[in-house]
Each structure stands twice: as C-alpha cells, then as structure tokens.
Amino acid sequence: MNGLRLSLLAGASALACLASGAAAQDATTTDNQVEDIVVTAQKREQRLQDVPMAVSALSASDLIDRNQTKVEDYFRSIPGLALSPLANGRYNLSIRGVTTGVSTSPTVGVTIDDVPYGSVSILGFGSRFFPNLDPSDLQRIEVLRGPQGTLYGASSLGGLLKYVTQDPSTTRFSGRVQADLSTIEDGGVGGGLRGAINVPLVEDKLALRASGFYRRDGGYVDDPAQGRKDVDRADVYGGRLSLLWNIAPGATLKLAALYQKISGDGSNQIDTDSRLRETVGDLAHKSQIGTGAYSNRTQFYSANLNIDLGGGVDFGSVTGYSINDYRMIADPSASYGPYAALVYPVTGAAMPFGFRTSKISQELRLSSSGPLLDWLVGGFFTKEKSTDYFIAYGADVTTGAYAGVLFDEVDEFHYRELAAFGDVTVHIAPRFDLQLGARYSGNRQRYHSLIAIPQPVQFLFGPTTDFRERSSDNAFTYVISPSFKVTPDILAYARISSGYRPGGPNAGDFDASTPRAYKADRTTNYEIGIKGSAFGRMLTFDLAAYKLDWKNIQLAFHDQNTGFLFLKNASAAVSKGVEGSFELRPSQGLSISGNASINDAKLTADLPAAGSFGKKGDVLPNVPKFSATVSAEQSFPISGGLDAFLGGSVSHVSGRRVEFPNSAAEVRVRLPAYTVGDVRVGVRDDHKSLTAFVSNIGNSRGALFSGPLGSRAFAASPFYKLVVQPRTFGLTAAYDF
User: Fold this and answer.
1) May I ask which residue range the UniProt record assigns to the signal sequence (predicted)?
2) Which domains occur in the chain, in start order?
C-alpha cells in the first residue's frame, strides 16, 4: 500500500511540475464567459438564471472528474443542503433546516427524470434511504431549495433533489471510458471503471445509450476486537439503458432502465463517549460478530412521451416504476443485549432486517409558452407498497451464534395519491412576470404490523400484537412569485410557496396516549432573491433571503418501555436565512466559484416533555448555522491542444446539535465545526484527461453525525459518530470518443 501511495504522489508531483511552467488557456471554453446552464426545475427547460427560485445545478461530469461519486462527497457544494449519514448506506437529507431528525418521514423529495423515488413515509423508511446514484450516466443534479409542493407534491417540505440523466443522441456515435484508483490514509484501496456508449440506430430517428460501472469504496474503520480492518469498504455496481425514438415530427418517446447495487461489509460508525471521544481506538468500533453487512438495490424504469399538439401546446406523459430493496444485519446489543441477558445465557444481540418499497407513478400534463403567458396543467397518480421485517436475537458475543428470539416483526404499508396541479406565468410587462400555481392532492394509506413476542420475553415487550390502521388526508399547496428583469441579464424575484408532508397511520398502539394516526405538517416559505450575470457574463451569481414557517410538526417518539417508534404532531418552528453562490472567470483559464449559507432554524414552541424534549428557541437538529465552500481552478495550454490544470476547494461547516433527546435528563450532543480541503492537478484535451487528486488534504476528522448506540442517551451511555473520509489520494483517467 505504501508503494501505491508513493506512485500516486509521484504522479501528482509530475503533473504539478507540468502545469507550473505554462500560460493561460481554458480547456472547456474559448473565453472567460461563464457558460449558460439549462435546468428543468419548473418542468420545462430554462436558463438557470431565468428561474425565479433558488436552484443549484451540479454537472455530473465535473463530479466524476473530482471523484465526488457519493452525496457525502458533494453536499457541501450546495448552499442550504445538510446531510446526516446513518452508516451502512443510509442517509437523511434536509434543506434550509427543515428537519427534526432521521426518524420521521422525509422532508426532501427525490426524483429521477421527474419520476418520484422512494417512500413518502417513515413506515417505508423514506427518510433514511435515497438512491445516491453514481453520476456515471447523469447529466446533472439539480437541488431546488424551499418547498416544492405545487409542481412536485408530497414530502418536499424543504426542497427537492432532482437527478437528470443523459439522453441518447440520434445524430452521433460517441462514448466514454474512465478508470480511477484511490487509497485512504491508514485505510483501504478503492477504484472504479466506468463506460458509456451512444449508438444512433436510425439516423435522426432512433438511438440507444448504454452505460455501466463498478466502484470499490475503500474502508477506513477497524474492528480490533474481531481483528478486522477497513470493515466499511463497499462494492457498488450498476448500469443504465435508454432508448430515444423520434416517432414523428414533434413526437418523442424515451424509455430507460437503471440498476444499481451497493454491498458493504460493515459499518463506518466510530465508538465514542458523549463528548465524541473515541473509546475503542482511532477510527474503530467494536461490533457483535456476524453483524454489519448490508446491501441496497435500486431498480428504476421510466417512459417519457412528449407530443407537440400544435398551436403551441405540448402534451407530456411521465411513467415510472421503481424498487428499493435494503438488507442488513444490525448490532442492537447496546439496546437489547441487557434484555437478552435476562432470558438467555448471552449478553449480545443481532438483528437481521430489511425493507422493500415498490412504487409506480403516472403524470400527464399539457403546457404552452407564448408572448402573453406560459401555462402548465397536469394530473398525477402514485401507488407504493413497502414491506419490512425485523428479527431481534440474543447472540453470543464470542461466537456470534443466535441464542433466542426477542421479537419478530413484519410490517406492510400501502399508499395511494391522486393530485391535480396547475402553474401559469403571466407576462404582465416586457420585464415583469407573475407566476401563480396550485396543487390539490388526496391520499389513502393502510398499515399492518404483526409483532410476535416469544413467551419467555413477553414480560419485557408485552404480548404478541396484530395492529392494523388506515388513514386519509388531503392537501392544498400554492406558489405566488412576481419577478422583474432589472436588466436582460439580472432577475429579481419574490416567492411565497408552500409544501406538505402526508400524515398517516401510526406504527402501533402502545398505550392510551399513542395516536392511531398523525396529521400532515406544512411549511410556508417567504423568499426574495436576485440572480444573473454581470461584466459581460464574466460573473454569474444568485442570492436569496428567506423565512420558512413550519406548523404542526411530525415528531418521533419512543415508547418508554419497549423503545418502539411512533409519531405525533406538536410544536412549530421557523427557519430564517441567507444563501447564495457565484462563479467568476476573471481571466482566460481561471475559474473561481463559491457558495455560502447562513441559517437560523429553531423551535417556536416547546416540544412535549415525554418522549421528545426541546424548548422554544432550541435549534433544529443536524443543521449548521453557517456553511461555505470556495473553489478555484487555473488551466494552462501546453501544446497540441493539451492543457494542464490545477484546482482545489475549501469547505467549512459550523457546529450543529444532534437529535432532540427523549427527556431533559438525556444528552444532546454537539457536533463541532470542521473544515475540509481538496486539491487536484492534471492534463486534458477535447478527448482525454488525467487527474491526480487529494481529498480532505488536512485529514479532518469532522463529525457528520452522532447518536447513542443504545435506546437512551445518558452521559454514561455508549455513543457513536461518523466522520469525513480521511485523507485520500487518487488518480482518474478518462477518454471520450
């Protein structure tokens, strides 16, 4: 491994020497103007600077070139986006501080090519899993900040993460191959292969695009008690097929199928005390033998039909079907080991569990653009089914052998939704527009939970339960957004928008105080912003200030006897902030960009004391008050169209508080601020590139998340944390044809 690191460093040094004696020339542009970015945030193509809301767009090719293949690599590039990684391939996202933790339904919607992905409910684990797609066949990732309830519906309380894939081309044969290799300091080796090919089958009529990849994510967390190193390594592979058919003039059909699987050997949790001091060793944990392995499988199928009906009216149909399948063997010893010891001759525990969500959706819409107004109307239907199982065993701490069942739970959740929506932009004057939109939706849900409790442990968890519940609700959301072109290149806007998260049946009937169902919660966002370009498009920028009110919050509670989860509505919160980004190209070959977010998200009313504790004024969990990233890159011409480049970035994230505790006696951990820097150097031309990089160059151990290992969070309890991946050296080579 040392030899590999020396080779990588030697390659980086050689490339740096190559870059140091060259003059300026940008490899991707012919001048120092910032290129236009086209997005589909409002379900039609627009320049990013013309969209009257806060939107960020990340180029997928840039992410690959920088070896930023997972959301934990790039989330700091998006103002207002916060990440709570939960280990073993699980994540929770929040935007603009709209979160009360990882144990409620999602507050950020996720779509792939406008098809909603994942469950809308905690009963389908929607807040803990999202596809985290490898960017190998993506065009870009868009993040819409602020509620998106009108065009995107349920669960977009704080915003939306939108994957946009590459379309096949009917005019040109092309492809790309790429290989990368990396090594983590005091950790494992990683790397990957990616390939894509585009084949016009019938010129201007029919084309096929195929892509595939394999990636090894190196590990860096050890389990010394088991003599295992780098247990958190993972293998990721997948591919995508897409077919584009120009059926007739003005009529296009795109079919796509995507598959991705992640398989991991263990957890990247690091054992700590309540002050985040490591208790087992540097980057280490102690786990029950036989636990930690997991897999997450994503399948996604879509059909997008677009027809020009004439008279300036377009028809669109978006059909999607997805499957999200997760399996894991967890280590709940800190929670259930003491229970197991009361009944069985063991002190450890193991919990195989899994879930599967299948989801189908259909959206139909009509749209038109004209000199007086742009309009869109549509209807939406979705149906999802989620199933899961949890089996808790007592386990021998030395052999891992199961000694007896503590409980065996099987759940099934069904969700159906119908919605109608509309959006119109009136061009009141040559430079003044007014956007109005609304959505009405209704849903029906049903839930069945069977928890089998063996006779020897019924005195701990109660008798076997067979619980069934149904619920239904509806929601109205809206948007009002006037905008004004200060100049042809600068847009000022105001925006009032709303979002909602569906209510639903609860996960059990634990006692008289547990509601059998909980209600929807809602956000209302008040925002003003300005965006555009200046100095001959040498500079692009966006700046937004907002206040977001959150009412009737869905809160997670834990039954005080069993630790089982249920939800209630209570309290209110407000999130206020300022966020922005810029890109500057002051001279040929030099690009400087950055983003920053200042956020104050806090409760405006006390939480109930029993089961979820927080006071008015307490900050919402896992949300930094300040975060910022600055990046720069300089390119230099060498000869024959070959350029060298040198770039880097620095990100800072301020301190955060973790989840609300169950009671005033429990600890609420504070995550300290951290700073991460990356550098890269390489050569490229129109067809090929070679890049050497160092990620986390300062080897920061910034904590991304923390929680108790058991069901209670007292100072004497064992805790864990997850940290930024340690310093990583790597090489990436790519060829386009």
Assistant:
1) 1-24
2) 2-366+386-441+448-736 (2.40.170.20)
Give the residue from 545, 543, 551 showing the smallest Cα distance to 499.
Answer: 551
Distant-in-sequence, close-in-space partners of 427: CB < 8 Å, separation ≥ 6: 371, 372, 373, 374, 433
For 488-604, list the strands marked E by DSSP: 490-501, 504-505, 517-518, 521-534, 539-551, 554-558, 565-569, 572-587, 590-603
Q: Which amino acid is present at 530?
A: I
Strands 504-505 and 490-501: unpaired
The neighbouring-strand residues paired with 501 are 521
Q: Biggest alpha carbon distance in the chain? A: 79
Query: With DSSP H G I counted as helix, E B as strand and the rest as coil, what are the percentages for the chain, rounded to 5?
Result: 10, 60, 35
**What would the two tokens of residue 108 be?**
């950020």
Segments of the chain scoring below 70 in pLDDT: 1-31, 509-513, 559-564, 609-610
CB atoms within 10 A of CB 716: 8
pLDDT digits (tens, 9 = 90+) for 624-644: 999 999 999 999 999 888 999
Cβ atoms 313, 366 nearer than 8 A: yes
pLDDT at 683: 96
Which of 128, 202, 9 is CA-nearest to residue 556?
A: 128
CA angle 68, 71, 72 (to 5 degrees): 85
Do residues 586 and 561 touch, judged by C-beta distance below 8 A? no
Q: What is the pLDDT of residue 26?
A: 33
The two three-digit tokens of residue 131, written as one number: 């596809």
Q: Cα-flanking dihedrals φ and ψ of residue 609, to 5°?
A: -70, -35
Alpha-carbon gap, residue 690 to 608, rounded angstroms: 56
CA angle 175, 242, 254 (to 5 degrees): 130
How many H helices and E strands in the chain? 6, 40
Token pair listed for 111 = 């779509």
Phi, psi of 62 (to 5 degrees): -65, -40
Task: State the amino acid at position 116 in one-letter form.
Answer: P
- Please give the mean pLDDT across all residues of the chain: 91
Helices (H), 552-604: none
Cβ contacts of residue 126 below 8 Å, gap of 6+? Answer: 105, 106, 118, 119, 120, 155, 357
Asked if 482 and 432 count as a contact pair (C-beta separation under 8 A), the reply is yes
Residue type, 520: A
Beta bridge partners of 720: 271, 707
pLDDT, residue 186, reads: 93
CA atoms of 220 and 477, how far apart (whole Å) = 45
Let me know how long the chain is: 737
For 94-143, how does the pLDDT look when each residue is reduced to its tens digit (9 = 90+)? 999 999 988 899 999 999 999 999 999 988 888 888 888 999 889 999 99
Q: What pLDDT, on a 0 to 100 scale, did the predictor assign at position 14?
A: 32
Identify whether the C-beta of residue 495 lies closer than 8 Å to the C-beta of residue 52.
yes
Confidence (pTM): 0.91
Going from the C-alpha of 31 to that of each of 35, 487, 705, the distances in angstroms are 10, 23, 43
Bridge-based pairing state of the strands 465-487 and 432-452 = antiparallel
Q: How many CA atoms lie within 13 A of 12 on its CB side?
A: 22
